Amino acid sequence: MSIKTSGLHHVTAIGGDPQRNADFYLRTLGLRLVKTTVNFDDPGTYHLYYGDESGKPGSLMTFFPWRDAPSGTRGTGQATTTSFSVPPNSIGWWKDHLAEAGITTGRIANRDGEDVLTFDDPDGLRLALVAHPQGDPRDPWDNGHVPAEHAIRGLHSVTLSVAEEEATAEMFRELGLTFTGQDSNRLRFSAGEGGPGTIVDVLVTPDAPRGLVAAGTVHHVAWRAPDEQTQASWREELVDRGVNVTSILDRQYFRSIYFREPGGTLLEVATDAPGFAIDEPLLELGRALKLPPWLEPDREQIEHTLPKLNLPSENNPERA
């Protein structure tokens, strides 16, 4: 078995109003908008990428925000919680910070030795902040909204809800993840060396209703491939195992393949390269609307269709 992903690449969800989405993820959570582009399959809709300073794989949360999108329903066949990694001893600060922003949070819980704070974004997307006791060596985005000592380091994990565990667990083993433990109906798998940014929890809820993907739910979860050659090899291996996999698709900032795990969640394998600085300088990431070459002839119409976004100046600091 050659497939061995090193961890999460990004999580993509469906949002509602684009400005409200940007305000929350930039100002409340303190992430950086690293790319403003469109949904390549529906260019009348933004595709907003949030992450660390350069949008490194494993730091990314992305959105298709539709202003009038109907609300989805959490349930089986979905990623039902997206968790971000924060430093040890920061959960209390975040609870106060979110309360000041009008966000209701759950009680601080401890799971597998990690402090966990759960809450919903303005569209009802279930999120969590997780503090690993050994910390997270990744650098945060240094912005004016969240102090660096408390700032998000990147993705921590995703939780998938399934009706049955066996086939989903086997799929993650096929992707090179290792089963690391079970707590009641929650199974944990980790990629690579483990730790924040590598984890998927599989929550087995046989009596839960099937989820409906719309605003406030996750569209897909992406795992890392180091390069295009490896991705192509993995795709062949998945096809040989009977998995229905898309062709390799050009997403400009990475190459992608998509398939569903047996429980129903849409998964992606995305390449680490070429990254978000391919079409604009690092200090200007996210500032301008970027379109792939095949959509450039329609730029005027697309810009007319998309609502204007007001971004905080901290997203593009003037640094030497």
UniProtKB/TrEMBL annotation:
Keywords: Dioxygenase, Oxidoreductase
Pfam family, one: Glyoxalase
GO molecular function: dioxygenase activity
PROSITE patterns reported for this sequence: VOC (PS51819)
InterPro entries in the record: Extradiol_RC_dioxygenase, Glyas_Bleomycin-R_OHBP_Dase, Glyas_Fos-R_dOase_dom, VOC_core
Superkingdom of the source species: Bacteria
Keyword Iron-sulfur: no
Protein's name in the database: Ring-cleaving dioxygenase
Organism name: Amycolatopsis dongchuanensis
